[in-house]
Amino acid sequence: MDHVPSAVLWIARDGSITHVNDQATKLLGFSHDEMLGKSVSQIDLGFLTEPQSLDRYLPPAEDLSEFSTRFAHRDGTEISVEVANRLIEVNGTMMCCAFVRDVSKLKQNQRELRLVSAGMRHSIDATLIAEVDLRDTTKKPKVLYVNDAFKLMSSYDDSVGIENTPAILSGPETSQGLLRLIQDQIDQRQPLRHEILAYTKHGSKFWAELCLSPISGWLDESSYWMIVYRDITNRKLDEKRLAALRDSLKVMVQLFATTDGVWDWDIAQNKVEFQSGYRKLLGYDGDDLIGIPNAMESLGSNIHPDDRERVLTSRRNSLESRTPFEEEFRLRCKDGSYLWVHDRATVIYNESGDPIRMAGSIYDISQRKITEAALDLEREMLKRSNADLEQFAYAASHDLQEPLRAVSGFMELLRQRHSRQLDEQAQGYIKKSIDGAARLNQLITDLLHFSRVTRDESRFVNVDLNVCVANVKKNLERLARETSASIQVEPLPTIMGIESLLMQLLQNLIENGIKYRGENPPTVKVSSNDAGKFVEIRIADNGIGIPPEFHQQVFTLFKRLHHREEYQGTGIGLAICQRVAERHGGSITIEDKQDGGTCFVVRLLKQIESQFL
Fold first, then answer.
1. Is 384 or 92 the better-scoring residue by pLDDT?
2. CA gap 404, 359 in Å, rounded
3. Measured over all CA atoms, what is the biggest interatomic distance in the chain, rounded to whole angstroms?
4. The domain over range 377-455 is classified in CATH as 1.10.287.130
5. 612: confidence class by pLDDT, cuts 50, 70, 90
């Protein structure tokens, strides 16, 4: 993971960081030693102080979870990031592998581009974008875009009829010297600001400030220009507004330069132009028009055959639905290999609503795809390994029960038939053997319960937790009576789940509250509260409590905090509870109680998504 370009953090379910790569230390501003073993909240990541943010950072599912957020770097700099994380089981423990990519510059550029686009559409200044053929100066400039303010100022409904060279909206009294100056500036690809006497469609004259600005000038065949008219007949020139508009245009050009490659499709002419960076990304020279010609076929022929139909269909749907185009696919390089790219594009429409231009940019995501493939393979291997272990535990438990019953039965017969012939020591051996067989039988039974949690193929249905707790109280009625226990239950919600597993979870936790009691009669309180898409169930008791340093260990299989002579049990009950909670897309933790005792907090999804079924 140290060679992955993104910052990578491995995070345990309790939020502690177990591994980071070098990129993570650079991005977050902390060293390896400062992060390892610490909780993510201790690293002062700004987004982790928000409510529920840790749960979002530690997804309950194994599928990839992505989100964008911001946080403060150690030096106080605010950074925008994209986080892609996946929950993976490593050596029996669920870990979160999080990829964090710095997108601060991208977010800033996207925001500025949106502002420029919106500013042009809603500007009170008449604006148009034109294409000028530099090879043939006798050709009229081609108008590509006009805004509503231009239509209102010129009285033209569309671009038809306004293509007068060298200056649009010129007329009989327009200065010929100014027109020659405009042509010279276009030939030299230089901007121009000047006052001009312009004409509307109906011949009406008006004075306007003309601002002529080149948008691009890297091609020899043609150049693109933005022309802004501001009516100054009855009002003063607003210099500040024009300067801001020019600066915004410069930002837009810089944004295109920051991508790996840009393509521009003139839909009306069915011609595609590829910026030099596009060709270089695929291993060609920037001006290699033979390897990648400026032709419509180039947009589809280099796409991997398995991706081609999907991408072309998505592109057509984008044009029809007037939505941005965005896809990930493979492009063929000059050497025949394929490169994974992320392609984004927007469409320009004419006044009639027909698409006339589509421009997009690509950037290389091959390394990310390699990492995702490796993670998918590792997850599948872990899944198969877990399935094999569960099958082994299930089969072994069944096979152990029969010889165990035989041992226990024969020892009981030996005690009944020959107890008078055996001395006290021999009878003690027999008793220990029978007790050991009983404990082993209980252990096997608990193991079967543990394996059935994930093997249970029951359908998820609406389960009333009030009914579950009522059944649990009936099952524990005798134990409660013998210990003078009080089980207090507040109204509980209905969620989707497997009723038998939820009953087992609740019974284990309530029974623990009675079993691990102190000097006072045991009291167990069951309550709930809403937590967004989760519901939190709290089971609190007044028992002997669990020291904070053991809050995570008690959920480990066979982990016991007390000797068997003090409290009976196999050390599997809480592991079963954790497995049931995870099966329902949630988790189980222990909350500190100031007045003693233990409070288990079980988080369960209200609606189970497909990956948990």
1. 92
2. 74
3. 135
4. yes
5. very low
Domain boundaries, the chain: 7-102, 108-258, 261-364, 377-455, 461-612
Going by C-alpha positions, the residue among 24, 20, 66, 69 that lies closest to residue 47 is 69
Note the residue count of the chain.
613
> Could you say which DSSP state residue 612 is in?
G
| DSSP H or E run through 600 | strand 599-605
- State the architecture of 261-364 in CATH terms: 2-Layer Sandwich (3.30)
Q: Mean pLDDT over all residues of the chain?
A: 77
* Amino acid letter, residue 273: E
Yes or no: domain 7-102 corresponds to CATH 3.30.450.20? yes
* Helix (H) or strand (E) run with residue 365 in it: none
The residue behind tokens 């020019």 is 246
Q: Cβ distance 273 to 296 under 8 Å?
A: no
Average pLDDT for 340-364 = 84
Residue 96 near residue 87, CB atoms below 8 Å: yes
Q: Which two tokens stand for residue 237?
A: 């020139």
| Domains 7-102 and 108-258 alike in fold | yes
Q: What is the four-CA torsion angle of 425, 430, 431, 436, rounded to 10 degrees?
A: 130
Q: What pLDDT digit, counting tens, does each position of 294-303 carry?
A: 888 888 889 9
Picking from 311, 413, 401, 304, the residue whose alpha carbon sits closest to that of residue 360 is 311
3-state secondary structure 83-127: EEEEEEEECCEEEEEEEEEECHHHHHHHHHHHHHHHHHHHCCCEE
CA 544/CA 370 separation, integer angstroms: 51
Q: Which two tokens stand for residue 198?
A: 């312009």
Q: 3-class SS at 240?
A: helix
70 φ/ψ sector (left φ>0, alpha ψ -120 to 50, else beta): beta
Give the helix/strand (H/E) hosting 398.
helix 366-418
